[in-house]
Amino acid sequence: MSHHRAIAGVFAVHGAVAGSLATRVPWIQDHLALDPRTLGLALLCPPIGAVLGMPLAGRLAHRLGGRAATRLLLALWCAGLALPALSPAPAWLFVAFLGYGMAAGTCDVTMNAQAVVLERHLRRSIMSGLHGMWGVGSLVGGGAGTLAAQAGVDARLHLAGAALVLLVAGAAVGRDLLPGDRPRAAIPGGDGKSSGPRFALPSGILVVMGIVGFCATFAEGASANWAAVYLTEVTGAGPGPAAAGYTIFMLCMAGTRLVGDRVVRRVGPVTAVRAGGVLAVAGGAVVVASRAPLAGMAGFAVMGVGVAVVMPLVIAAAGRTGSTPGAGIAGVASITYLSGLTAPAATGWIAGAVSYPVAFAVITAVVLPVILLAPALREPASPLREPAPAHPEKATVHPAPAPALSEPAPVLPEKAPAPGEGTREPEPGPGCQRPEIRSARRA
Fold first, then answer.
1. What share of the chain is helix, strand, coil (3-state, %, to 5)?
2. Closest CA to 209 of 69, 80, 319, 356
């Protein structure tokens, strides 16, 4: 159980880093006097850095081992939290965000690979709950950042202090991680170096898994970025209800992930993803049709429940399918992270060109492939569910192993021989001739 707590702590620390920085972006904008266009370009750098870094994560895990790579990248991710606020000019901010994104993406790959290794060890689904812990960490980090901003704390002090605290926390929880993605043995007769792939690009079934993750993440990213705006512009919601729409969406998604593993263990990943896709489509339809704040918030809540377990299960399936957990996850994540680049911009472009309801109708249509392609997540012999045998009374009973030849067990007679009856010597070991039965009877 300590391994489970360790990886849950890693996910929570990773989420806390993201939540902490998100609350201080307005301070960075004011400090560097950035216009909205420049800030928008700067905020594109983290997902770009993540996409660039993810193919290298499998190689790093291959060389160092999964546990060591996760601890190193989590430390870099925590330390990178302080860099954006320390940037003296916009150009340095771009560089800081790129490095921040690379650390985020590579650590994302290795920690999810660790989760896949632990799932195999425990033989049950845990991925959804771990992603829920990421959401909890993000909410905690965001809450602390909100309090710091409200108190007027300089973001350089706040983020540097948060980075230090999270560094210590990450080092503490990382000690109990299971070893995973161990370095492979050197090629016989070679130069003594391992021969792992330098890059992990998706192919075959991993591409299909990546499409499922892309579609779910597209709906997630669009809803998170545009829920408040949609409720304001379409339903006439005030600032409070509009902000509540975003909060409800995130809480529903995080809460569903925390309990989602129970559903997965009962019905399996394919059924869980299909059901989630149906709920997300239904929620999107309610959002498109809503013209009142409460109806719109209900639609976003259902969408949050629907998309919650899809991405965790895609990551788990990719980790089981790739040559190593890190390689499979890196390939799929390289596709799904593109949603972070395209979803907000595409939603805004469609809304500006046509309308917000049409934009969310398109988002709802994007979710449909999740339902159709869910069988790609099926595992041929899934260890996550072990049904009981149909006829337990007919279960095969395996005999106990024979004793070792070096210590033969004594052969006891079933009953004492009667006077005048013959006795039989113990059975000889392999390779010996069978002795004749000695007769005690005299002529």
1. 70, 0, 30
2. 319
Nearest to 325 by CA among 115, 56, 71: 115
Rounded Cα gap, residues 375 and 34, in angstroms = 46
Phi and psi angles of residue 191, each rounded to the nearest 5 degrees, phi first? -90, 10
Q: How far is Cα 384 from Cα 363, in angstroms, rounded to an integer?
A: 32
pLDDT at 203: 66
Phi, psi (degrees; rounded to nearest 5) at 423: -120, 155
Q: What is the pLDDT of residue 180?
A: 53
Q: Does the CA dihedral 19-128-122-322 come out positive or negative?
A: negative
Residue type, 82: A
Which tokens belong to 389? 């045998």
**Helix 90-122, helix 325-336: angle, nearest 10:** 130
**What residue has token string 């994104």?**
101
Work out the average pLDDT over 239-247: 83
**Percent of the chain residues past pLDDT 70, beyond the cut:** 80
Buried b (16+ CB within 10 A) or exposed e, 17-49: bbbbbebbbebbbebbebeeeebeebebbbbbb
Beta bridge partners of 438: 423
AA identity, residue 439: S
Taking residue 223's Cβ as centre, other Cβ atoms within 10 Å add up to 28
The dihedral built from the CA positions of residue 146, 149, 150 and 151, taken in this order, carries a sign that is positive
Terminal Cα distance for the chain, rounded = 74
Cross-strand bridge partners of residue 423: 438
Greater model confidence, 196 or 88: 88
User: What is the identity of the amino acid at 11?
Assistant: F
Domains and CATH numbers, the chain: 1-179 (1.20.1250.20), 204-379 (1.20.1250.20)
The rounded distance, in Å, linking the Cα atoms of 319 and 328 is 5
Structure-block tokens of residue 253:
């998604």
Q: Which residues contact 307 (CB under 8 A, 6 or more apart)?
A: 216, 217, 219, 220, 223, 253, 276, 280, 367
- The span from the CA of 142 to the CA of 329, in Å, is 27
| CA–CA distances in Å: residue 90 to residues 34, 38, 40 | 8, 8, 12
Of all residues in the chain, the percent with pLDDT exceeding 90 is 38
Sign of CA pseudo-dihedral 322, 327, 329, 330: negative
Whole-prediction pTM: 0.72
